[in-house]
Write a structure and sequence with these properties.
The structure holds 2 protein chains of 2 kinds. Chain A is 74% helix and 2% strand. Chain A contains 25 helices and 4 strands. Chain A has a two-stranded antiparallel sheet. In chain A, a hairpin with a 2-residue loop joins strand 1 and strand 2. In chain A, helix 3 packs across helix 14 and helix 7 packs antiparallel against helix 10. A 6-stranded mixed beta sheet of chain B has the order 6-7-8-3-9-10, with helices on both faces. Chain B has a 5-stranded antiparallel beta sheet with strand order 13-12-11-14-20. Chain B is an alpha+beta fold. In chain B, a hairpin with a 2-residue loop joins strand 4 and strand 5. In chain B, helix 4 crosses helix 5. Helix content of chain B is 26%, strand content 33%. Classes of the chains: A mainly alpha, B alpha+beta. Chains A and B meet through helix 1, helix 22 and helix 23 of A and strand 5, helix 2, strand 6 and helix 5 of B.
Chain lengths: 582, 361
């Protein structure tokens, strides 16, 4: 009897462990990927900065802090980041207020235009400002004839404000639309003036949202590479200084040291943002969607006028860059041309595409599309793979963390959200240090770039997967299981279909990031492997500003095409609730 | 003997908290069992252990003679109906019902046949192509019910299936579940905190408190002969008096009640329980002859609440509140009003006596 029962128990326990094995091994694979491709490179950076010939040393830090030219990059970074944070948060707050708390006309237009900066590389703001306010700028030189130009701190701050605007706006928009407006009405019914209500009720109830938006802007600005590299001029910041030391001077040790220094404020801002976001969501009451009273005419006019300011600025940026790419010689000869889209031979290798185009095209078109556009095909190819890979991996990570909760899910969660804290340039340098070894076969190929972009953007993908999976009631999955579905059938037939919209919005997000990212991959491109977004910088450095604009325009067109494509598939705009945190 | 489900010393511990404490029960094939208890009593935990979604800390779950403790949920072939319906929102009514058959790789024609059969069972043929979001709560729960029944489960488990519905629909669906159970002769285990639901639907009711089975019995037994003051209090409403028993009398300090309980009666300090509808209420002077004057009391009507067919009176008797339910007709005939001085009669045979160590809530 006893023996019989034992043998039965053995056979019955087998299926239990088979599911556990499936979840456990999936989690192990994800953990291995994150440890190997995120922690290991960062570890290598720290090691290089603290150790020389096997011994612990602070010499690198001594060298950094005693060299005034290098040390300035830290104070510069902090300066532009703080000013940008202040301006962007205030601007975005009142913009969000106008969109959520007033009855101004044109809300959809305002909202849509304000998301534009997400679909282009951050560098676009820099390019536009140079065309308008640079040494040869349309406005500075030719309209008001001044010698002043925007290069340096001013340019970085203005450009970063535009770049960070939608990211801050998303957070503040969510906060303001979720906080109960009945509180405001109650305060006013008790006799508080509109202004007093704002200070005593509205502002305190959104304080966590405001602080979390500020922390995000700070993080984005201090880690950005694209803007300072084109518009910074001699004004060096941490992110560009790392690149300068590594690529310009071949001083990997100093690059690593500056990376560690940059990690501290960016990590701090990330943790602050993370902590505040949680607090902010705790304040949101579930049933706060009352009717919005019509605003008084004065308030309406004021906010309409106000909202047009950032909207126009963003529109001008895009129009300028587009115009800069199709006129003969900005700002002297405005006759239209497409010659800037005929890039100087950029070269690079786009294996599949190049062969494909070379086989179907002839003559001039062949050299243009198949060879000169190689970086664009590369970018497209990389972006498609990043989109599919990134969305799938983050969905799996979210599923395990939110629904399966095996032992160790806390570690998986922590590692999944950590990438947003690590600046792209740091990650890029870390990849060189960790993987530039002969036995590491994917170094110098597309694959390392694909992995890098997926890892750098893992945070937002995972968080949005988790948020979406949270909405699926536990009993739905239990229903499937009790009806006899195995774990794989439960996932593919029930869980995945229910997260499809979130999955596709993650696909869009990863695609956009892959098309527009600069900071990390600039360390990973080579003469053979080139990417469109990176070519903007090289074209700009070569003085081919118009071609840089043209490349930027092509990227935007591709991203917009992708957004429309996704819209056709899912019937929803892919941009909502999406912000670039890396 | 059919395929019985047996719980043996079943125990569930969450950390230091014992949610289910060594419970034993034999459920026969085709039986309709109801777990009834206040929230947090462990009834849902018992159900989840039976379904396999919760592991067993100690004891055994035996089905058809086999220990199934470690069998994964999808191998147990127990259907489940959830409080939240848990219909797959991405599938139509038809696809929802077919799901359990598809994953079992049943041939297509057979699936169609079975789905039709199920739809007929609940009279929802016209809605087969609708999505759950297009149905009302009651309709959704009916679909969930036949979805769980479609693969012909060994046992059907229902976890507070009607709690999310309106009172009216709850009563109607309750009757429908009962009808289906009798038609299909399916073993059903039903969890609820609603005593009326439990008493009206089940063959046997298990009253749970603090992880233990306090009483298992037919609804009428549970109501008429609650075996503890907890059950007397939780199932229905009861008036309680504390006192000392001497022979067939109980002295409460303020008064003496005559009792007429059959069988063994607890000694010494006891609790007397009496249902509100057993107490007679009338105007002074209307005293009937056959009433034992020991069990007569005087009081004043404090609160009058209409319950529909009956009227609930809260009567103050020497500083204590006594609840009495009078049918509406008698209430009108006897012209009872709030503030009236009234007489109360406690029939000796209506008292149930419990040992005093069982303190009612």
């Amino acid at each position: 009897m006893n023996q019989k029962e034992d043998s039965r128990r053995l056979t019955l326990s087998a299926p239990v462990s088979s599911e556990r094995w499936l979840v456990g091994s999936t989690m192990s694979i994800l953990l291995a990927i994150l440890i190997f491709f995120m922690l290991y490179p960062v570890y290598d950076i720290c090691k290089l900065s603290f150790f020389r010939e096997g011994a612990f040393t602070l010499k690198n830090y001594g060298a950094y802090f005693t060299n005034p030219r290098m040390f300035r990059s830290l104070t510069n970074s902090l300066y532009v980041s703080l000013i940008t944070t202040l301006i962007t948060t205030v601007l975005a707050f009142f913009f969000a207020y106008g969109l959520t708390r007033t009855t101004i006309p044109g809300k959809n237009l305002f909202y849509t235009v304000s998301t534009f900066p997400l679909i282009a590389p951050s560098i676009i703001q820099g390019l536009a400002l140079i065309l308008l306010f640079g040494r040869n700028g349309l406005i500075t030189r030719h309209l008001i004839h001044t010698d002043w130009n925007i290069y340096g701190a001013t340019g970085i701050i203005v450009a970063e404000c535009l770049y960070c605007f939608p990211n801050a706006l998303f957070i503040l928009y969510t906060t303001l639309s979720a906080v109960d407006t009945r509180l405001d009405e109650a305060a006013q019914s008790l006799g508080a003036s509109a202004l007093k209500t704002f200070y005593k009720v509205t502002l305190p109830s959104t304080k966590y949202g405001i602080a979390s938006a500020a922390a995000l802007v700070f993080n984005l600005t201090i880690t950005d590479f694209g803007v300072p590299v084109v518009i910074g001029g001699n004004y060096s910041v941490l992110a560009t200084e790392i690149y300068q030391q590594v690529i310009g001077m071949q001083r990997f040790d100093l690059g690593a040291t500056i990376s560690v220094i940059l990690l501290i404020p960016s990590m701090g801002a990330f943790l602050l943002n993370y902590y505040l976001t949680k607090k902010s969501y705790a304040l949101i009451s579930g049933q706060a969607r009352p009717f919005l009273q019509p605003s008084r005419p004065f308030k309406k006019w004021l906010f309409t006028l106000y909202c047009w300011v950032p909207t126009l600025f963003i529109l001008i940026v895009f129009v300028t860059v587009f115009a800069g790419s199709v006129v003969k010689t900005w700002p002297y000869d405005f006759s239209l041309t497409l010659k800037h889209f005929d890039f100087p031979s950029l070269g690079g290798n786009a294996p599949l595409w190049t062969n494909f185009w070379a086989s179907v095209l002839e003559g001039e078109w062949k050299s243009l599309i198949a060879y000169k556009y190689a970086p664009i095909w590369n970018s497209l190819w990389v972006s498609i793979l990043v989109a599919i890979g990134g969305a799938s991996l983050t969905l799996l990570a979210g599923y395990i963390v939110e629904k399966k909760r095996p032992k160790g899910e806390g570690i998986l969660y922590a590692l999944s959200v950590l990438p947003a804290a690590i600046p792209g340039t740091v990650m890029g340098l870390g990849y060189i240090l960790a993987f530039n070894k002969p036995y590491f076969l994917i170094y110098g190929t597309f694959w390392i770039i694909i992995i890098n972009i997926i890892i750098c953007n893992f945070t937002l993908g995972t968080l949005s997967s988790i948020a979406n999976l949270k909405q699926i009631d536990r009993s739905i999955e239990e229903a499937a299981v009790s009806l006899g579905a195995n774990p794989i059938a439960t996932f593919t037939r029930v869980v995945f279909p229910l997260t499809k919209t979130a999955f596709f919005s993650n696909v869009t997000f990863f695609f956009m990031r892959a098309m527009t990212t600069i900071s990390a991959v600039i360390f990973l491109v080579s003469a053979k492997v080139k990417l469109a977004a990176i070519e903007i910088i090289f074209l700009d450095i070569d003085g081919r500003t118009a071609s840089a604009n043209a490349m930027c325009t092509i990227i935007i067109i591709l991203v917009v095409a992708m957004l429309f494509g996704m819209r056709l598939i899912t019937g929803k705009s892919g941009l909502k609730g999406m912000s670039a945190t890396a | 003997m059919g395929r019985n489900l047996r719980l043996e010393n079943l125990t569930k511990q969450f950390g230091t908290l014992t949610a289910v404490d060594h419970v034993n029960l034999e459920i026969e094939e085709g039986e309709f069992i109801c777990f009834l208890g206040p929230s947090g009593c462990g009834k849902t935990t018992v159900l989840r252990m039976i379904t396999g979604f919760e592991t067993v800390t100690e004891g055994k779950i035996i089905f058809d003679g086999k220990v199934i403790n470690r069998l994964i949920p999808q191998k147990r072939e127990f259907g489940i109906v959830f409080q939240s319906y848990a219909l797959f929102p991405n599938m139509t009514v038809e696809e929802n019902i077919a799901f359990g058959l598809k994953v079992r790789r049943m041939p297509k024609e057979k699936i169609g046949e079975r789905v039709n059969q199920m739809l007929n069972l609940i009279g929802l043929r016209d809605w087969r192509r609708l999505y759950p979001a297009q149905l009302s709560g009651g309709q959704q729960q009916r679909v969930a019910l036949v979805r769980a029944l479609a693969p012909d489960p060994q046992v059907l488990l229902l976890d507070e299936p009607l709690s999310a519905l309106d009172a009216k629909i709850r009563v109607r669906l309750r009757a429908e579940i009962k009808r289906l159970q009798q038609e299909l002769k399916k073993t059903m285990i039903y969890v609820t905190h609603d005593q009326e639901e439990a008493l009206s639907i089940a063959d046997r009711v298990v009253v749970m408190e603090a992880g233990q089975f306090r009483q298992v019995g037919r609804p009428i037994e549970i109501y008429q002969c609650p075996n503890s003051s907890f059950v007397a209090d939780f199932v229905g409403t009861s008036n309680f008096f504390r006192g000392i028993r001497a022979e067939d009398q109980v002295h409460t300090g303020k008064r003496v009640f005559k009792i007429a309980q059959r069988g063994p009666i607890p000694e010494g300090e006891v609790f007397l329980a009496i249902r509100p509808e057993k107490i007679e209420v009338f105007k002074p002077g209307d005293t009937a002859v056959e009433m034992d004057s020991t069990n007569l009391a005087s009081g004043r009507i404090d609160v009058v609440t209409f319950l529909g067919a009956a009227v609930r009176l809260i009567i103050r008797v020497e500083g204590e509140e006594v609840i009495s339910d009078v049918i509406e007709k008698e209430f009108a005939q006897r012209q009872l009003r709030q503030g009236d001085e009234v007489k109360l009669y406690f029939p000796p045979e209506a008292f149930i006596v419990y040992p005093a160590e069982e303190v009612p809530r």
